[in-house]
Amino acid sequence: MSLDRTKPLLLPLALTLTFELWARLTQLQSDSLAPPSAIFAALAAALADLSIPIATRDTLFATFAGLAIGSAIGLALGIAFGVSRPLDRLMEVTIEAIRPIPSIALLPIALIALGFGYRMEIVIVAFACVWPMLIMTRSAVRSIEPRLMEVSRALRLSAPQRIAKVVIPAALPRIFVAFRLSAGIALIVAVTVEIAINPIGLGAGIMLAQQALRADLMLAYLVWIGAIGYALNILLIAAQRRLFGRAALAGDNP
Amino acid sequence: MKRAAILWRVASVLVAGSFIAAWQLVADLRLVSPVFLPGPDRAWAALVRGFSSGDLAGKLIGTLEHMAYGWFAASIAGIGLGALIGSSKMMRAYVAPSLEFLRPLPVSAIIPVAIAMLGLTQGMALFVIAFGAIWPIMLATIHGFAAVEPRLYEVARSLQMSRAAIIAKIALPSALPDILAGMRLSLTVALILSVVCEILAGLDGLGHWVLLSARAFRSADLFAGVILLGATGYLTSIAVSLVEQRLLAWQAAAR
């Protein structure tokens, strides 16, 4: 059993060691690669001088602000479309016309309208988060056990009451799955915007390290960004297990 | 029943049309500065002008090329690697967790590394697009291979099929729905990364076009570019869905 737990770690460990050895033996001098020991030294230094913590704060702020706005819009629209079939059908063409626009294509529009900084990044992240939330919420609401809706009708609940007391609680586990996926997308989009153009946060940090030809620092940022993405994912999966138990995982991997 | 569906569709188009009319009204009344928001008439005119001068068509082809090459490379490599890893229990135990670990990594973070290695070149863009697009395909393939009905493998063993035959005749067809879903997902990734790479490296394409238009405050050209990008995303995804339906027709029939 203990072997099963170590198996997944063997490959990364072996790769890291081989790379370190190879870099040492060949006296690696490169603008794009650095031995793992140098990467971790650079990571420790950047963590200590607060450049990475500050960049992380900026990126996460934009990520969560965009996620909050985008998923709130997506949730509201998703519930409305899920509850009312006619509304869904009427809006179909409009939604299908806007949804395929890649979020990053909005970058130049946001840039001229809002300038550099948090605001444009938040807008783009929010746009990207609306769609997974909308679509998964809509299908979650639609797949609610019909008898629950019959009960709510029999109890003569008003529409707002019905949504607050029946629809949202029943659809919540799947809505949370949508939220988790949106959070991953939000982080990806935030970092992408920073790398492409916005001079704040982790994405700008990694670009700056590349332009300064600091391969060790650049790869340290890469490792850190990966760790942030992984931690966010783990955290949300743990929250999902905690809040909804195994019921939520059934809606996963559709 | 069928007529009702058509009527709903027409009504839905009308709703979309009224949104465009509202956009036109907002632009005409100058509620938003025309520097930021051109009316649909101006965006459409820019689209027509761009195509008749051949400028925009060239950029569109540039983006489609980046996307297609990167996506094809990712599909071939992703299915190949996924099949290799997914068909072996040992590889799944040792390699798959590392891949799962890498999955939440924002792929665009690889761009600076690619620039450091390959410079601001076409090759860099292809590497980044392929690298980004390979994940959904590879993970879907591994998942598809792992989820093959075990009895089919038992049948294969009793028929003494070779590993290659098992992959080609049993595992691949059974994993096909997963693989195609992964390929459709990675198409979106490929489009996004194409745009980002064009913006960063100044490669010929719509990403570069929208950025230049924004810098020059030519908002009509900018919106024309964004509309084209949306259409590209929409049409390519529809094309893959059609292929998907075609290839999976046998499965729908079996159900």
Can you walk me through this structure?
Chain A: InterPro entries: MetI-like, MetI-like_sf. Chain A: Its main location: membrane. Chain A: Pfam families: BPD_transp_1 (PF00528). Chain A: Belongs to the binding-protein-dependent transport system permease family. The complex is a heterodimer of chains A (254) and B (255). With 254 residues, chain A is mostly helical. Chain A has helices at 2-25, 36-48, 51-83, 85-98, 107-114, 118-142, 146-154, 159-196, 201-211, 215-244, 246-250. Chain A has a single domain, classed as MetI-like (MetI-like fold, Orthogonal Bundle), CATH 1.10.3720.10. The radius of gyration of chain A is 23 Å and the shape is elongated. The model of chain A has no long low-confidence stretch (mean pLDDT 86). Chain B has a single domain (55-254), classed as MetI-like fold (Orthogonal Bundle). Chain B has 12 helices and no strands. Chain B has helices at residues 2-28, 40-52, 55-86, 89-94, 96-102, 110-118, 122-146, 150-158, 163-201, 206-215, 219-247, 249-254. In chain B, helix 3 packs antiparallel against helix 9 and helix 9 (163-201) packs parallel to helix 10. Classes of the chains: A mainly alpha (254), B mainly alpha (255). The interface between A and B is large, with 58 and 57 residues.
Short structural summary:
Chain A is mainly alpha-helical and 254 residues long.
Quickly list its features.
heterodimer; A: 254 residues; mainly alpha; MetI-like fold; 11 helices; elongated; B: 255 residues; 12 helices; 0% strand; globular
